[in-house]
């Protein structure tokens, strides 16, 4: 079957069993982050209740951490603790998706559990009511060839240069729209705060926006949206590439731009606060870059709508800057800033925590998180699709 056929085949019976009665039971899909950072894992369990009303209805669970690069075989049980749940758009009914964080037997967080660090930061800055909106870019890849290639790339060659693909319409330049649409609907059904989506500059590249959300909710919703995208891609016979520079050369990379505001930046005189935040981010540029994803130097080259990784910059409506001040913010004298440095493979818990901590608290509260994340990056095994 050709990729084009696969992309139109969704709905031909995949969910024909979803309306069968469950006799008072529900299915809970427990979801967590594996040991490589973007290898999202999940497994199902039956709960003998008609509906989940609160986290109290969801028991802790465990899994084999030796199979997820998070434990040794002689002591492999990792604890799953439910943190938030959403309606399941695949099983429908009262079935739920349960986002969990992960804990070692000694009570310490696993190598990819950065939610606990993020929650500490968000609690400490709660008075400033930080709002976040993340723009998650990704590239859809074909599964019917090896090595896998982006949708829109012909066998053994390259498509036309960038230009016609951004916000494009038509089969010759928009590749994978059905996948994007299915993902969009799944997010809305599940209550994910998805605010929009569009095709991007690179062929087969798309973006979805999550937010605005306050505090820890941003990371929860981004991770669940990523999970839903991976599930949708399964049904269309495609894969999702989260790499920040999937194809080397004059092709755009993938980012996860972070829009950020606080009660102070949204108030009268907020532009002065934004400039103070920018100066703090300048002082901690390398510190933030450390936490903004893997292989970001490949993407932040100073070309293809990126800043240079070694130089901090900012400007109004400047998509080649580290920090972009939207024109509407500059005109009104209040609003938000956009940090364009985070990579598509970054952890939203880490990015949002660093951004809030550096801007509001001068970076005093994330040293342990920074060090843990650096240790993770130095040990992570690559994800091959």
UniProtKB/TrEMBL annotation:
Tell me if Secreted is a UniProt keyword of this record.
Answer: no
What residue stretches are annotated with the GS catalytic domain? 114-385
Q: Which BP terms does GO give this entry? A: glutamine biosynthetic process
| Cross-referenced SMART domains | Gln-synt_C
Named from the GO MF annotations, one term is: ATP binding
Matching InterPro entries: Gln_synt_N, Gln_synt_N_sf, Gln_synth/guanido_kin_cat_dom, Gln_synth_cat_dom, Gln_synth_gly_rich_site, Gln_synth_N_conserv_site, Glutamine_Synthetase
Q: What class of enzyme is it?
A: ligase
Reactions listed under catalytic activity: L-glutamate + NH4(+) + ATP = L-glutamine + ADP + phosphate + H(+)
Indicate yes or no for the key word Aminoacyl-tRNA synthetase. Answer: no
What EC number(s) does its UniProt record assign? 6.3.1.2
Gene Ontology cellular component list: cytoplasm
Recite the UniProt keywords alphabetically: ATP-binding, Ligase, Nucleotide-binding
Question: Which residue numbers delimit the GS beta-grasp domain?
Answer: 26-107
The record's family statement is: Belongs to the glutamine synthetase family.
Protein's name in the database? Glutamine synthetase
* Taxonomic placement: Eukaryota, Sar, Alveolata, Ciliophora, Postciliodesmatophora
């Amino acid at each position: 079957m050709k990729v084009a056929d696969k992309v139109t085949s969704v709905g031909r019976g995949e969910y024909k069993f979803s309306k069968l009665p469950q006799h008072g039971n529900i299915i809970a899909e427990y979801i967590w982050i594996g040991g490589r950072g973007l290898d999202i894992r999940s497994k199902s369990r039956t709960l003998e209740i008609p509906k989940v009303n609160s986290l109290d209805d969801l028991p802790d669970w465990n899994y084999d951490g030796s199979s997820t690069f998070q434990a040794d075989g002689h002591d492999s049980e990792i604890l799953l603790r439910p943190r938030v749940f959403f309606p399941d758009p695949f099983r429908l009914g009262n079935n739920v998706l349960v986002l969990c964080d992960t804990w070692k037997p000694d009570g310490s967080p696993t190598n990819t559990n950065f939610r606990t660090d993020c929650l500490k930061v968000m609690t400490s800055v709660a008075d400033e009511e930080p709002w976040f909106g993340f723009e998650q870019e990704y590239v859809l890849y074909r599964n019917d060839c090896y090595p896998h290639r982006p949708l829109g790339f012909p066998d053994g060659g390259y498509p036309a240069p960038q230009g016609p693909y951004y916000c494009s319409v038509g089969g010759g330049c928009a590749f994978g729209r059905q996948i994007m649409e299915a993902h969009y609907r799944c997010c809305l059904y599940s209550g994910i705060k998805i605010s929009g989506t569009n095709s991007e500059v690179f062929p087969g590249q798309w973006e979805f926006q999550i937010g605005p959300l306050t505090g820890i909710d941003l990371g929860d919703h981004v991770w669940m949206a990523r999970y839903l995208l991976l599930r949708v891609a399964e049904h269309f016979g495609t894969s999702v590439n989260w790499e920040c520079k999937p194809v080397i050369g004059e092709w755009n990379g993938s980012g996860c731009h972070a829009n950020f505001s606080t009660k102070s930046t949204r108030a009268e005189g907020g532009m002065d606060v934004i400039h103070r935040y920018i100066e703090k981010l300048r002082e901690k540029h390398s510190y933030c870059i450390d936490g903004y994803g893997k292989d970001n130097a490949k993407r932040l080259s100073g070309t293809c709508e990126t800043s240079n990784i070694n130089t901090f910059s900012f400007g109004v409506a400047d998509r080649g800057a580290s920090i972009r001040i939207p024109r509407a913010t500059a005109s009104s004298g209040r609003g938000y800033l956009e940090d364009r440095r985070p990579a598509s493979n970054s952890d939203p818990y880490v990015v949002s925590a660093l951004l809030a901590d550096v801007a509001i608290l001068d970076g005093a509260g994330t040293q342990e998180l920074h060090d843990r994340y650096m240790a993770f990056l130095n040990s992570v095994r690559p994800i091959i699709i």
